[in-house]
Design a protein that fits this description.
Shape: elongated
Helix content: under 10%
Number of domains: 1
Structural class: mainly beta
CATH superfamily: Cadherins
CATH architecture: Sandwich
CATH topology: Immunoglobulin-like
Number of strands: 7
Strand order of the largest sheet: 1-7-6-3
Distance between the termini: 58 Å
Number of helices: 0
CATH class: Mainly Beta
Strand content: 35-45%
């Protein structure tokens, strides 16, 4: 799964994720989702009126493309069966650049002899 997120996106912004499908019903269906460790993202799980679980990715803090242009995350879906079964999906977040840096010279003064 691929997401493009601008580095100007405010913390707290939510992004819907493609949810796992489990043909089992009742307690054997999807029970929860987990997200790999991340400083920038967390998971918010919603329950639909039919009991289905929906995962949303939430931005915890602003992104900076110059620090990290791509974030690789793993989303894990776990069912309620015994034994529990799980499936994983890769989430690749590309950080889109905004013009947040001014050009700079490496030195304040340059000397030239002619």
């Amino acid at each position: 799964m691929h997401l493009d997120i601008s580095e100007s996106t405010a913390a707290g912004e939510r992004f819907s994720l493609t949810n796992a499908v489990d043909p089992d019903v009742g307690s054997n269906s999807i029970k929860t989702y987990y997200l790999s460790e991340s400083e920038n993202f967390k998971l918010d799980i919603q329950t639909g009126s039919d009991g289905s679980k929906y995962a949303n990715l939430v931005l915890k803090k602003a992104l900076d493309r110059e620090e990290e242009a791509v974030h690789n995350l793993i989303l894990t879906a776990v069912d309620g069966g015994v034994p529990a079964r799980s499936g994983t999906a890769s989430i690749i977040v590309r950080v889109l650049d905004v013009n947040d840096n001014a050009p700079q010279f490496e030195q304040h003064v340059y000397s030239v002899n002619v």
